[in-house]
Structures are given as structure tokens and as C-alpha cells.
Predict the structure.
Amino acid sequence: MKQIKPVLLLLFIALFALAACGSPAEEPTAVPEPTEEPTEAPVEEPTEAPVEEPTAEPEEEATAVPEPTAEPTEEPTPELRTENLEGETIIFYHFGDLSGPYAAITSPLIHGMEDAVAELNANGGIRGATVEIQFADDGGSVDEAVAIYDRFTSEDDNPLIMFTYGSGEAEALTSRFAEDEIPSLTSGLSAVAFYGEGSGYTFGLGSIYPDQFGAFLDYAVANWDEIKPDSAGDEIKLAYLSWSGAFGQGALTDETRAYAEELGVEIVIEELYDLAPTADTTTALLNAQAAGANVIWTNTLAFGPAALMNGIGALGLQGEFVLAGDNWAMDLATYAFVSDPALTVGMYAPLSYLWWNDVDHPGVQQAEAMFAANERSMTEHGVGYLVLAAAVDVAAQAIENAIDEVGFDALTGVDVQYALTNMGPYEGLQGVLSLDFSDGSRSPHSGQIRQIQGGPDAFNVVQDFTDTPDLRPAK
Amino acid sequence: MAIMRPSGDFDRSYKQDMTVIRQRWQYILLIMTLLALYTLPMYASEATVSLINRIGIAIIAVQGLNILTGYTGQISLGQAAFMTVGGYTSTLLMTRMGLNFFAALPIAALTAGLIGLLFGLPSLRVKGFYLVMATLSAQFIIPWVTRTLWQDTLNGAQGLIVPVPVINLPVIANQCFLSTTFNAETAQCAYRFATPSQFIYITLTVLIFTTIITHNISRSRLGRAFISVRDNDLAAELLGINPFAYKLRAFFLASVYAGIAGALLASNLRHINSATVGLNDSVLLLGMLIVGGLGTSVGPIFGAALVTLLEEIAVVLTPLVITVAPDLAGGATAALRPLIFGLALMLFLIFEPRGMAYRWNLIKAGWRLRPFAK
Amino acid sequence: MNWQLLPQFAITGFLNGGPIALIALGIVLIFKSSEIFNFSQGQMLLIGTLSTWWFWAEEGLGLPLWAAIILGLTVSAILGLLIERLTLRPMTGQPLLSIILMTLALSQFLQGMAILTFGTTQRNFPAIFEVTSPYKISLPFFTYNNNPMMLILKQNLVWSFGVAMLCVILLWAFFQYTRTGLSMRATAEDHETAQSVGIRINHIFGISWALAGIIGTVGGILIATASGLDLSLPIVVLAAFPAVLLGGLESIPGAVIGSLLIGLTQGLVALPNNDFILGAEAAQVIRSSSEIIPYIILLIVLVIRPDGLFGQKRIERI
């Protein structure tokens, strides 16, 4: 033992030296960063250095955003950059959960994306370039999502856009997206992922859950006399019955609590139930009833709202509560888990996109035609398909704008991010999903309130598009 | 098995007898291997480096389990729970106390060790299967605590965002060397271990330390005491070894290793919550130990590598399975992973319960006895 | 405290223990005969329940429900026999760790098989009992704020409990009156003695695994009919493990009583509300502890009385 000690010590020193020498080798991967100087650049005046480093300080993000504008000024002839890119490919990286708890809602996401991309390619792709999808299933595990992210970034040193689905991985990956400068569109509408520390490259396909919650509270307060249960008084008493986890607890933040108080809505009880179809909501519901609740908010999806609906049905509590949930709760996926479809009737949710029953809308018609042409099964006629089809349109437009700006050869994620934030209000899929990522907003801020008034085809509008309260977290 | 040595390798002193690395070529081999690992980011893809990284972290957790289960014979289904403790502790130390990762790591390891000790206490009362159940309860209670109690600090089920480990170096001649970047807050150059090919230096270095320590535990008094408790606790007691004290030490050490692995994992993922590691991971770690070989120094390395690679094979096989059974589009990976792991573990249990380490020794002996052994 | 909900939650929890008891019984059966603690019980019942669904569903065979259930139970019996013969028989005489890991490996393997065979899609399990219109019982002697207390009981909860208890009685009769049952008891008593009177204990091991598969699947079906069928069904065994230890590993009545007690405590922890003595936050913590309360009980049992309520006293050096 004694003999090997000095040797090991030497070894460690040698290894550290090696490790240090080893790292410059990564520089080739760092080079494609558009405007940044190589990281070894001399720090002449320490006070200047941070400006060059967008990741050094989160507060600097706002100043870091205009960076790409530096590039167009070098060659101020954007229209010349629009070339025919036939033969080139652009890859959309897509994370999904096909085998974990969110499978019910994310499997239609994939087909929506596939069909939209196929249609996009049939119509000439993005300026002639063909779009390909790289999909990976992470089974709902953040651990796995990070491994997939490493795989994606190792296969491609210049990814232009990624699509994620859940709050958990959106939150875990958000700092990586910002550091590696890869814009991402996500269906996981966590406030932390969009506005938390180190964010900036993650954009939402719907309003964040606190905004949704706030929007519903606004609606409930304004229309309480019409929507209130017969047994309820004038006061809105809310029960937050949901899953644990980033998604389930996503709508309950300091901001939403304060907002509810401001509106005079009392959150009388918070209950958790299992993230599984076998969850028993009996105690949660009876406790809510005992606490005097007359409104239930659930931040769940598929079997989440279904567990509450089944519980309300089985306990004979119909008409005791106004049930409301996040946008994913109002979806076809819920119907696979309710013991009787009639139990879904009456649920409210704020939706920031249109629904399949807006049959007169050209965008919805386009999605419907796509759905029919690809002979998709009716079990996928839900939110995932519609939203992803629109998201593909948004991503394609952003990349197209970026290409027009800097050309295809110089195109990086930074340019796409810049294009996304500078598109102004954009109507994805002719308005199925309207997004506006300007002024530091990374999620939509308006929505309709809809109510289930029949089957999945009767998610009817009870309040048209209005601005949601802005309840994004204070930094 | 008798120690088989090449001819000409004799012990002339006690010191020489205790040497781990005996021959010049062994040194060379060791240095070459370490060199190959440390220079990995130069020639391997980011995905490979990320894989090696994950294997490295798993090895550390399995090494701890090896002390507890392999040497001391106490079965634990709670290793992943103690990883959670380590991950949360290091994160809180970094975010709340402003400690550097490298200062937080040992404290996180100790905290996990102490919590492990707590759940090891039932070992004073029960053993065997009952102890398995006690450690299983740790696997449920600890994640529940992290998502239910002290929500202001632990942020409930949402968990915490974990900062990237950073080394601060002084600014020399107004320049930052060695791929570091300037940090205005500390007026120092910072090296951030952000990507897998940066993080791997931490994993490898910690792994070398834990490997040396585990190997030396196994051949010191402590290790021999562990083994005596495992093989015959009555005899151990007669020899003056207090089985209870040693069982608790084993629990403590195992959890320290788990704490280290958990802290590394959290920083590597940059995110930790109660679901980051769970019961499945505890089973996976035990499986790695069995596949690699209980109570051997190389076992954890073999086991963690093989099982992690098998999981990767599941990913590779997925497209194939989908072409055979298109209905399974999403479920293929989810189906193949447990299937392959379960099958491999069952085959090892039936046909090679002594694990790959034993096979490895047979190969080595066969090589040395050549041409007399086949 | 929500005192008015006390009888409600106590009885709901107690009744919830019914299906858990069936699963726990499966574990006890196997342990009694062969001293193997079966960690793969959850996956066995998952496959049994999924097969039942497949025999019934239109995508599958489309049989009437009763036929589907019979076939599903047959599948789980065969599965149990196969598992015993192929994986546990070769492990005879191996140390405890190997056997524990074998059943853990099996649980992983079977989970993979279930996904591979049946896919990840969600399934609507047929409702056996009425899903709406619960039984409302007003308690005769208890009042709260001068209102008579009401019990609201879901129909499937009540009936599931009834079916579970019927199975327990059938099982008891099987052990009491049939030749096979008696030889199983003999085997549980002592392997060598049983062999000396001509019992083929290998057969007995097989039968106990088959039986465990069957009653586990009955439990699985009862749970699936109440709340749908999904690949996460095996998590129900996590409540059964502590129940088995609480009752005592070898005791059949112990497993039943243990499960009902576990169900009862899970119901009771939901009681504290905002007026709780320790404050609203503590109340919330206690309410959310229903998933770990079985394991806290488990730890207490292990420290105070490792043999459980009805288990065999073992004098063993630790």
C-alpha cells in the first residue's frame, strides 16, 4: 500500500494536467457559436467579459438576445440569402413519452408531428430543405431525457430546434438549451422552464399553468352566479386536487395564491392523489366537500381528471362542484378512463388553441384533412395531434425566417431563437395556435374558456379569447 | 481460488506481499487505461462519453452496495433512496450555502451516510429478509419526505434545479486559460463541468478514489471483519468482532458511496426530485452487483458496465422490434429494458451466480496456466 | 379533524383492504410452502388481468366476461406453474439474496413481457359492478352537529370486498377440507416430514404458485374494474408487502387482517383538516402520508415484533 501511494499521487497530478490539456480539444464544437469569440480569448478588461458570455449571468439574457443582429449587419442583404435548399435536411428533434405515465397524451403528439412534417415536405419543405424527425422515447423519466439530449447533441453539433413534452424534462433541460443555444418548443407548460433562472431558449405551446389557473379564476369570479353549483354560496372556495410533481403542482405558485386572494377566492384544501389510473380520489373528494369547496382545480391529464370524474360519479357528488383543469385535462385521452362519458360533462378548461369542433376554421379544416388523409385512428383525434401540427408550422416559419436572415450555411440555433422571438404574433396553422414570443414572453398570454357540453366534439367556447392574467414567476 | 502468479513473481518482503500492482507491465496497463479514459472526450462522441459517465456513477453506487451486500451480507433495497439524500444535500449546500460542488460532495456523502445509518438500525433487531423490508421502507419514506416536508426548501415534488459544478481559477496575466471562462462575480476564471465530456473528469477522478478505498477496505481489518460477519456472525463474535457495530459501519459506508453517486448524478442531470432515482434503480443496482460478482473489487465495475450497456442495447434494438411489431411503436424500449435486464439477471443467477468477476478470474488463471489449461 | 368523516374514511379504508388482502394472500401462500417471498406478485397479476381483458375485449377474443375471467385465471395459474418450474426450481438451496433477486428479476422480466405482448395503450376494463349510484347509509346512533352521519359507499368497493372475502373463505375451506390443501399445510409444516408421508413437495410448490397467481389475479381484476387497467397496476402490491409482514409471513388470517388494518390506517390518515391541532400544514402532511403509512407501520412492526401479529415465533440469533 505504502508503495503505491506516491505513484498514485503522481498519477493524479498527471491526470489533472491531462484533463486540463484535454479540454481544449472540445473547442471545435464551440467554434460554430456565431458571434462569440473563442473561449480562450484574452480577458483584457474583466468588466467587459460578461457581456460576451450570455450564460454567465441570467440577468444578461435580455442583452444577449440581440446578438444575432450583429451578424446581419455584417452583410446587410437578407433577401439574397434565400436560396433553394433542395437536397439539404433540417432535423426536428422530438422527445416523447410513449411508455410512461404521460403516454396517453403524448402518443398523438408524434403522429401530429409526423403528418405535419410530411405535408410540409410535400409542399417544398423549408425553402426546399427536407425536414426529418428524430424521435426518442424517454418513458417520462428526466434521467432518460438528459441521456437522449446528450445523444442528440453528440450526433449533431448544430441542432436547430427541439420539441419536448413534459414539465419535468422541460425544467431539467432548459438551462442546457440556453447554454447550447438550441431553441425548444415544449408542451410542458411549466413557468420555471420558460422564465426560471438560466432559461431563454424554451418556448411554450400554451399558456403557463399559473396563467391558465388565473384565467379560469377570472372567468369563475365574473360568472359565478351562472356557473355555481346549486348548493354553493356566493363565495368561491377552491380545492386544488392534483398529482404531485412538476406538472401536477405547476399551477399553485406564490403568484397564483396571491392572485386568488386578490380575487377573493379561498383555496380551502390541497390534496394529492396518485399519478396512476388506479388512484382513489374518495378521500380527496370527501375532504374537499367537508372543507366546503365548491370549485375543484386539477392540474392533471388523461386518467388524472378521469379519477376525479369517476370519484364524483361513484360517490354521487354530481352537481356539488365546478370542475376545472389545465388545458391537457380537456382532451380525448380523458375519455379512455372515465367509467361513463357523461361524467365529463361540465368541466371547464382554458385553452389557448382552437379545438376540433371549430369546423369552420380553415386551420382546423387543414388539420382534419391531414388527419383523414393519413387514416389516423380516432383515439388520436386529440390535443396532441392538433397542437403539434401547429407547432411544426411555427417551427418551420421560424427557421424559414432565420434562413432568410443569415442563410442556410451560417444557420444556428441562435438565429432560430432570434427568429422565434421576432416573428411577432404568428398564427400557427392559420390560427389554430397563435403565438407571440416578443418582449421576453415565452408562452402565449391569451386563451378561451371552454366547457365540455357533450362528448369530445362538444368542448364549447363559453368565453372567447381574452388576455390571461400574467402570473409568471418573479425572478 | 489460489492466487496464480506468473513465474518469477515472488514476495521478498511483507510490503511486497501487500502490493496491489506487482509488475511493471501492470503499471503500464493501468496508466494506459486511465489515459484512455481521461482522454476519452478527445476521440469519443458525446453520447459515448455520456454513457461512460452514467456507468461511472452507477459503479460508485454499486461499490457501496458491494460493501454492504457483497462483503457484509446485508441485503439492501434502499441504495437509490440514499442517492436521493446525497443529491438533495449537495444541491442545497450549493444553492443555499453557496458552497462549491467539491466542498459539498463530502458533506453530502456524510449526510447520506448518517441517514443510511438510521435505516440500518433495524439490522440490530432483524436480519435477512426482514432487513430487506426495512431498507425497502427507506426507499418509500425518503422520497416521500423530499416531496412532502420542508416544501420551501426542497420545493416539493417539483424538486430542485442543480447548479453545474464549477472550479474557480485565478486570472493569470489578464487571461483565462484551459477553456475556462471569466466570471465577473468572483473575478476569477471558472471551469464549468457542464457537458458530459467536461463532467467525466469529475466522475473518473471520484471513481478512482472510491475504487482504491473499496479495494483497500476489502483487504484491511475492516473488510475482513465484514466478511466474517457475512460468513458466520457467531464465529465473528467469538473472534472479538461485534457484528452489530460492523453491520452499522457497512450501512454507513454503503450510504456514503450512495451519497457520492447521488450528488454526482444530480449535478450531471442538473435536476433532482423524488422520482429521479427510485425502487427500480435500487433493484438495478443490486442486479448490477450480482451480474458483476458479489464481494469482489472488479464486480461492481463489470456489473454496472454490462447492465448499462444492456440498457443501451434495448435502445438500439427498438427500431428492429418496431418493424416486427409496429403496434409497439412507443413501448418497445420500455418493454425491452426490463425484459433484457430481467432475463440477464435470471440467467446469471441460474448459471453464474458468482458473476462476471469469477469468470474473469477463470480467464486470467487460464491464461497463466496456458498451455496446461484450456 | 373531520370527525364527521371518521366512520366514512374508516370503513372506506377497511373495504379497500379487501383486494389488497387477496394479493397479500398470494404472497403468503408461496412463502408458507417454499419460503420464497415473491416480489413479482404484482407483475403476475398484471399479466393475469391483461389476459382477462384480452379475452374479453373486441380487439382480442371478444368472449363474454365470465368466460374471459375463467380463461384469465387459467393463464395466471399456468404462468405461476411455469415460473416455479423454470426459475425457482433451479434456485433450490441457493442463498436468500439469490432467491430475492430472482423474484425481483422476474418482476422486471414479466413487466417487459406484459408491455411487449399487450403494448402500452390504455384499456377500459369492463365494469362488473354499478359505477354510479353509491350506497348511502345513515348511521343510526352517530350524529355530528345534530345531523345523522352518512356513509357513502361506492358499489364496486362494497362488492369487491365481498368477493375478496368470499375468496378468503374458499381458500380456507380448501386448506381445511381438500386433500391438496391438507398436503400443502403439511408441506408448510416441514418439508422432510411431508415427503416422508408421500407428498411430492415439488408439486406442492407448483400448486402454491399457481394458486397465488389465481387469487392475485382476482385481486387485480377487482382493482381494474374499479379504476381501469394500466401497466402501473403492479404498484398495488406495494401496499400488500407491509400487510404481509404486519400479519406475519406465514399466517393466512394474518395476511387478511394485516391488509384490512393497512387499508384502515390509509383511510384514517386522510382525516386531519385545517382545524387540526398541529396546524393546517401538518394536517396536509399527514393526509399525503397514505402511501407511506404502510411502510412506517412496517418499520414499527419490524422493531417491536418482527414476527408480525400472527406469525410463527422464531428464535433466531441476529
Q: What stands out?
A: The first strand of chain C starts at residue 135 and ends at 144.
